[in-house]
Specification:
- The complex is a heterodimer of chains A (about 110) and B (about 120).
- Chain A is mostly beta strands and about 110 residues long.
- Chain A is built from no helices and eleven strands.
- In chain A, about 0% of the residues lie in helices and about 60% in strands.
- The N and C termini of chain A lie far apart (about 40 Å).
- The mean pLDDT of chain A is about 95.
- By secondary structure, chain B is mostly beta strands.
- Chain B is about 0% helix and about 55% strand.
- In chain B, the strands form two sheets. In chain B, strands 2, 4, 5, 6, 9, 10 and 11 form a seven-stranded mixed sheet that branches.
- The radius of gyration of chain B is 14 Å and the shape is globular.
- The chains are: A mainly beta (about 110), B mainly beta (about 120).
- At the A-B interface, strand 4, strand 5 and strand 9 of A face strand 10 of B.
Chain lengths: ~110, ~120
């Protein structure tokens, strides 16, 4: 079954701290993986996109990794800010780009 | 222009009303999507239009009626909705099957629907 799992379900950290979110997938054949940030009541906004040949990609304080062998991805947030409080959703594209499967998301709360 | 624009941002309607949600993109994407999202849940796929033809209908009740007038526009017509239909409705677009480049979703900001 094509599935995406994310952990932890929720996370609370203090402002300035780093954190890492995990995404495991079982979809096949894999096309790409994208991390989205979603503020409450708003649409998801893309952070990074990872294709099969990419291991690491950075976007400011966000760094995503991909291990296509173990089918795992992580999103590392450095020096967290209050505005990082949001849900982070991992979306995997598969079946030669025809289909998408969503993870359940990780709810991040950054406290002052 | 790399945006997907949704209107209205907020909509309150009664169960007997007829209203529409609108979505527009000018990225040349040939696939457009409607998703429904309840609080603290991931988006759930409702409809997919590929090259202006309805390609996926995820067993959505007939009180939701999609329409794709052209490759840039996507509407969702609402009629006789129930209170449990209250949710955030997200429109998304992607390059589409067979198009060069990675096929990834670009989302709009969403339309918050409340059914009284």
């Amino acid at each position: 079954k094509n599935q995406v799992e994310q952990s932890p379900q929720s996370l609370i950290i203090l402002e300035g701290k780093n954190c890492t979110l995990q995404c495991n997938y079982t979809v096949s054949p894999f096309s790409n993986l994208r991390w989205y940030k979603q503020d409450t009541g708003r649409g998801p906004v893309s952070l990074t996109i990872m294709t099969f040949s990419e291991n690491t990609k950075s976007n400011g304080r966000y760094t995503a990794t991909l291990d296509a062998d173990t089918k795992q991805s992580s999103l590392h947030i450095t020096a967290s800010q209050l505005s990082d409080s949001a849900s982070y959703i991992c979306v995997v594209t598969y079946n030669y780009g025809q289909n998408f499967v969503f993870g359940p998301g990780t709810r991040l709360s950054v406290l002052p | 222009d790399t945006e997907v624009t949704q209107t209205p941002k907020h909509l309150v309607m009664g169960m007997t009303n007829k209203k529409s949600l609108k979505c527009e993109q000018h990225m040349g994407h040939r696939a457009m999507y409607w998703y429904k999202q309840k609080a603290k849940k991931p988006p759930e796929l409702m409809f997919v239009y590929s090259y202006e033809k309805l390609s996926i209908n995820e067993s959505v009740p007939s009180r939701f009626s999609p329409e794709c007038p052209n490759s840039s526009l996507l509407n969702l017509h609402l009629h006789a909705l129930q209170p449990e239909d209250s949710a955030l409705y997200l429109c998304a677009s992607s390059r589409g099957q067979g198009a060069p480049g990675a096929n990834v979703l670009t989302f709009g900001a969403g339309s918050r629907l409340t059914v009284l």
